[in-house]
Write the structure tokens for this entry.
Amino acid sequence: MIVVVNAGCEGNQSMFNPQGPAARSIAGFGWLLIGISIAVYVAVLVALGWALVRRRRPDDDQPATTSRLTLAIASAVAVTAATLVTLTISSEAVGRSLTSPTGPGAITADVIGHQWWWEFQYRDVSPQDFVTSPNELHIPVGTNVVLKAQSRDVIHSFWVPNLQGKRDLIPGQVTSVWIQADKPGVYRGQCAEFCGHQHAKMAFVVVAEPMDAFLVWIRNQRQPAVEPATGEQRRGRELFMQSTCVTCHTIRGTDAASRVGPELTHVGSRMTVGAGTLPNTREHLEQWVSNPQQVKPGIRMPASPLSRDDLELVITYLRSLR
């Protein structure tokens, strides 16, 4: 019963709080499994209790009793077989609905898993319209979004419990999954396949918004980094370009063009840093840049060699990139 109570809790990340058609299919099948499991559990307890309290009677060895018990056992086997067939058919139907959206996908995005962060890419007809959004997947409400998923290192698993079931990302293979949200909101996702030391801190968010807001967002994401507006921001950009940061990160509109780590063109507008590890505040961004190993041990990003004053200027510049 504890499982049932916990399963019914509607939290920020719960398969029993579905916010999309795929998630509703999964939740419905989950409740069906729970209901049948409870019914079988109760039936077994009742049969066990009856067997424990029943006393042997003189007519137990009579042919009529044997015939009656045989019929009862046959009926139980038939019910069990019917239950298994029902579950098999239901499971197949749900599985098909998860891989085949109800309509054509209006948007296609690439999902790329890294140790230990996510990269979401949007492509258009023109190469210059390429958009990458680390650790944040933006989707329009009520629209099927087809995701092409792959891994760059080890096996990962894309999972947004409120919107879709998990989909494994296999190195060297591209797998497809679709996702749809019924209403605006921010839904937490995570890697659901153990992938190393920081597997637990490999999270992301799905931002579902009206189509107009989504188009505004993606249009903004296509723009290069804004020019520094103050002397501090200009000095911060100079320090960034002179540091080792440019060997791993891209800021479009500047000479920083490495694809090793997450793109930083619009890093100031993101909700988190470190793949959902910390909220994206000035203090947390400074903590992350100065010593990421303290926050997320084992990642490939080294500690910053910048002085305290120079670090403050670089953070000021990064915060301006929106």
Notes: The two ends are 48 Å apart (CA to CA).
